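F.,

This is the one I mentioned.
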């Protein structure tokens, strides 16, 4: 135990949900646990799809990011539990928070010899936890954020923020300023990415929205990943034909995307992790929720749902979105 305490890396948080949005949702939880720790920082174990190394690179509450390699990966199956335990044993953590109900992560932490193991206590997971604070058996299921908040409350750890707050990397911010400083305001970002086809509003709708906005446009930044490059380039080409400035913002490093969103007057996009990033960066973020439940965890997210009687993404028309944006006043006198 003496060697462990001398080289201890403090607190580990296991957050195995894979998406960027999932990591954004958990930011208030990570920040609260870090603030309550002697080190003021935590290590996060998560999946590579979260891009947490880029997303959290400027966050002083995050000491390091470790990768959980699953589905497929080296941490799958029974042998994978052993490999994960070996990885964690080498880090000498004194405490772990498991923000998931699966027993496999609690078992790996038990095998790794982490002295203090905290989790929801769902089913078999309870056998491998040793902290007195657990959720009652009938309260171990529900939305991930509700469960995590419930665990913090029972641990008497106060929140440090009411909603997710993303720390912007200063180097990325300066890169964005240098690249786009000549673009007129207001800056409008369109998030065209979609993890599932049924959440995709579509190229034609984004183009028609730009046409409806007309004189409200200053500069348009089409934001998306590698898979949306062709679509994004077609949208940008149409915008340029109308004489509107458009900045190349496709497949940027995630920290630069976050910095750009923080400087935008408004963001409009599909229900994706980037929508959550925009809100966590402080931008008014209008999400298109025709095929998924609206989000209510951030005051910066404005939910655009089909008007009364409509269903699906096709029921959210460009004219309707343009009217909502104009009526909100968000485009009046915006600055980046």
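My design for it:
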């Amino acid at each position: 135990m003496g060697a462990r305490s001398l080289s201890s890396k403090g607190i580990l948080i296991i957050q195995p949900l894979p998406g960027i949005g999932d990591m954004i949702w958990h930011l208030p939880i990570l920040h609260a646990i870090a603030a309550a720790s002697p080190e003021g920082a935590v290590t996060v174990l998560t999946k590579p799809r979260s891009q947490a190394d880029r997303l959290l690179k400027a966050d002083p509450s995050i000491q390091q990011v470790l990768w959980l390699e699953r589905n497929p990966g080296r941490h799958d199956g029974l042998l994978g539990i052993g490999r994960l335990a070996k990885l964690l044993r080498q880090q000498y953590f004194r405490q772990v928070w498991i923000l998931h109900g699966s027993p496999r992560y609690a078992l790996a932490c038990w095998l790794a010899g982490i002295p203090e193991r905290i989790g929801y206590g769902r089913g078999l997971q309870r056998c491998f936890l040793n902290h007195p604070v657990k959720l009652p058996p009938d309260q171990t299921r529900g939305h991930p954020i509700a469960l995590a908040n419930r665990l913090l409350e029972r641990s008497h750890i106060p929140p440090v923020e009411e909603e997710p707050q993303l720390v912007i990397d200063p180097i990325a911010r300066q890169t964005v300023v240098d690249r786009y400083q000549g673009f007129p305001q207001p800056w409008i970002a369109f998030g065209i990415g979609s993890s599932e086809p049924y959440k995709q509003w579509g190229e034609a709708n984004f183009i028609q929205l730009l046409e409806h906005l007309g004189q409200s446009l200053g500069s348009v930044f089409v934001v998306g990943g590698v898979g949306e490059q062709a679509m994004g380039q077609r949208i940008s080409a149409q915008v340029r034909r109308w004489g509107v400035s458009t900045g190349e913002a496709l497949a940027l490093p995630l920290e630069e995307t976050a910095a750009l969103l923080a400087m935008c007057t408004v963001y409009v996009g599909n229900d994706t992790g980037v929508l959550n990033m925009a809100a966590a960066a402080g931008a008014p973020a209008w999400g298109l929720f025709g095929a998924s439940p609206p989000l209510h965890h951030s005051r910066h997210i404005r939910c655009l749902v089909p008007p009364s009687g409509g269903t699906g993404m096709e029921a959210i028309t460009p004219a309707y979105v343009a009217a909502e944006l104009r009526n909100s006043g968000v485009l009046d006198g915006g600055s980046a």
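The radius of gyration is 22 Å.

Talk soon.
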